[in-house]
Amino acid sequence: xxxxxxxxxxxxxxxxxxxxxxxxxxxxxxxxxxxxxxxxxxxxxxxxxxxxxxxxxxxxxxxxxxxxxxxxxxxxxxxxxxxxxxxxxxxxxxxxxxxxxxxxxxxxxxxxxxxxxxxxxxxxxxxxxxxxxxxxxxxxxxxxxxxxxxxxxxxxxxxxxxxxxxxxxxxxxxxxxxxxxxxxxxxxxxxxxxxxxxxxxxxxxxxxxxxxxxxxxxxxxxxxxxxxxxxxxxxxxxx
Length: 239
Known about the structure:
By secondary structure, the protein is of the alpha+beta class. The chain has helices at residues 2-23, 127-134, 199-210, and strands at residues 26-35, 47-54, 64-71, 75-82, 91-99, 102-107, 111-112, 120-125, 138-145, 148-149, 155-158, 163-167, 172-180, 183-191, 214-217, 223-226, 232-238. It folds into two domains: 24-126, Immunoglobulin-like (Sandwich), CATH 2.60.40.2990; 135-238, Lipocalin. Helices cover 18% and strands 46% of the residues. It is elongated, with a radius of gyration of 28 Å.
């Protein structure tokens, strides 16, 4: 009888040990380089937020498993512990940067938990980031005019205080501007009067500048000045 009790006890012990191993959380690790567009300056106070989600669930609010927040760094090292019954194929990682209370950058698609070996995480700008850039001092160089490549040296500098300056291939110019969301208005445009052989390009640029009524940052992080119908007139790249 004692042997029977002993066998039952041993069986229960093995069963309990097996259950504990099944229930033991498994570790998920993600490491890599965080790549951000160069035109967005991340402050020293920014935070890197990494979320782990269960993509099986239909309710978006219920998908979040865990979130970790780190001081901003372009070197990502994250460890999560998840219930053992979850499959890696059911999970995804979401990375974003929060700076001055705004979610400025995030990965353009969720990172599958099956791809945790990737070497870099590319982030794209949110609308809040683009708007913040427009309100800060910035320098741009013209690349296209009315859909055609620009071959002359034309620049546009926004000071963040409603004044703009630039070089229009031959002369310097300046103006006042107003910006409300994407509505962009230029006033008091003046330029120096030096004569140059290629004045036509400069005249065309200044005329085009007066037609502008909309300003935005596109998905290629270019500055786009457009007309009332949102048709691009002038496209600049960040200097």
